[in-house]
């Protein structure tokens, strides 16, 4: 039996960047016909937006690219998630610090930043900066590179 890769995308509130990454990555693996080889979710490091649906601008931009994201509600990352996933992909340095606080430690080096798979840097939070198109471009780049690394066995 082939190994299932379990990925959790993480941002501050789980209404913008991490659900965008979750659904973009799902779209990539579905188009490649390998969705059965992954478990993909997203979560928040804070409690502020728990239970809220995906931000309307994220829904709009994903829809523009033919990606559905209905039925997603913000949920909180928990310390016990560490043993259930292979990778925790944060959007910025603050997310990384908050994940380490939640987990306590990262002995298996599962916590990574999305753009570290591509060009480096942070995915800006469009909730505050308003540039959802730029966020989509960054998320697509990072998710594509994660998939490429998985395909070549380097993930």
Description:
The chain has 155 residues and is of the alpha/beta class. The protein has a single domain, classed as Response regulator (Rossmann fold, 3-Layer(aba) Sandwich), CATH 3.40.50. It contains five helices and four strands; from the N terminus they run E-H-E-H-E-H-E-H-H. The protein has helices at residues 17-31, 56-64, 93-103, 126-129, 132-151, and strands spanning 5-11, 38-44, 87-90, 111-113. A four-stranded parallel sheet has the order 2-1-3-4, with helices on both faces. The longest helix has 20 residues, at 132-151. The protein starts with a strand and ends with a helix.
Low-confidence stretches: none
Mean pLDDT: 96
What number of domains?
1
Main sheet: strand order: 2-1-3-4
Spell out the helices and strands N to C. EHEHEHEHH
**CATH class call:** Alpha Beta
The name of the CATH topology is Rossmann fold
Structural class: alpha/beta
Distance between the termini: 19 Å
- Write down how many β-strands occur, each being a DSSP E stretch of 2 or more residues: 4
Report the major sheet.
4 strands, parallel
Please tally the helical runs, counting DSSP H or I stretches of 4 or more residues.
5
Fraction of residues in β-strands: 5-15%
């Amino acid at each position: 039996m082939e190994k299932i890769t379990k990925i959790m995308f993480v941002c501050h509130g789980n209404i913008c960047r991490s659900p965008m990454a979750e659904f973009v990555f799902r779209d990539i693996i579905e188009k490649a016909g390998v969705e059965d080889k992954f478990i993909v979710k997203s979560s928040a490091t804070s409690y502020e937006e728990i239970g809220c649906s995906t931000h309307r601008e994220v829904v709009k931009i994903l829809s523009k690219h033919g990606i559905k994201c209905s039925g997603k509600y913000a949920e909180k990352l928990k310390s016990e998630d560490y043993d259930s996933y292979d990778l925790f992909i944060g959007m910025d340095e603050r997310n990384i610090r908050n994940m380490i606080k939640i987990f306590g430690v990262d002995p298996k080096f599962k916590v990574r930043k999305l753009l570290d798979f591509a060009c480096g840097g942070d995915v800006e939070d469009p909730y505050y900066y308003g540039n959802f198109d730029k966020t989509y471009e960054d998320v697509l780049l990072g998710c594509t590179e994660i998939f490429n690394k998985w395909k070549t066995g380097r993930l």
